[in-house]
Amino acid sequence: MSSKINYTLHLADNALILGQRNSAWCGHGPVLEQDIAITNISLDLIGQARSLYQYAAELTGGGTTEDSLAYLRTEREFSNCLLVEQPNGDWAQTLLRQFLFSSYQFYLYQYLQCYSDTRIAAIAEKSLKEVSYHLRWSSEWVIRLGDGTEESHRRIASALDELWRYTGELFLPAGYEKDLAIDVAALEYDWSKKIKNVFAEANLTVPGNVFMQTGGKSGMHSEYLGHLLTELQYMQRTFPGCEW
Amino acid sequence: MQFIRKYFYGDIPEDKSGAATTGKSSGHDWPLWEVFIRSKNGLEHKHAGSLHAADAQMAIENARDVYTRRMEGVSIWVVESKYITATNPEEAGELYDPAVDKIYRHPTFYNLPDEVNHM
Description:
The structure holds 2 protein chains of 2 kinds. Chain A is an all-alpha fold. In chain A, 66% of the residues lie in helices and 0% in strands.
């Protein structure tokens, strides 16, 4: 049971942290229309996180709620992958992070749709429609920047240099994934194919021989997560139990 | 200092196919697009508003994100604003005023059965 709780939390944390990251663009998007696009994606992700936290809270019992899971756990208790906690950087870095992660979520949720736990399967099925759109939107932006001007290409290429090292972790099973026989390694083939196809159109090359960073899935995070959580959890920590 | 200058559709200079220009570029020089949304199957597409986008594909996606996030639509059309020809407001008199006193053109002299919708 604890592996199932931990896995549900891992899925929820991924969605919440990326949702929180994207939400920082609200009011700062490069143009109004894209400001709305990225914050819509943010809300989709936070919605996914809520469904998953609610399920994890039910499994945990004992007064645990979706809010206590999101607002009252410490950095080491979060098991999101490192990729989603990386800073927004410029627009290129934000949407490349989205692309790398949405393409992962796309194949993962397809897989989880048929998972034996019907609650997780149902959340995956519902979320897949949203993720398909995130993938479509971010793929087009990767191509647009990669195949755009000299500056846009330079920016997306440097974002790729920065973020690629966090992609290896996605396909390395954590303890809870092994316990539940969730074969994340098997997703890598389709994911790589998708990435290569989009990169080919964007004139980008998959970096070779990069040392892959790991640890997020077991609570060992980069320096950025603590700062993010400080902001995310500030209200509940300062005014415990406060409600809107 | 340059003040905002409003163009009417139809007389937009080719190099600025946006409805209004300001002295300062608003961060991009993407053309303006008009968005039409069909709220449900069987109904017509209605003008919902306009937005900026680099190409038709982006215009569709922007329209989806800006105009259908509260379940407003099931289908979207976009067309670049410069392709819309509009009447000139100065000619409003000769174009529209003659219809003012011709109330017999309204179908208000008939009784419509309740079952007839969308009239």
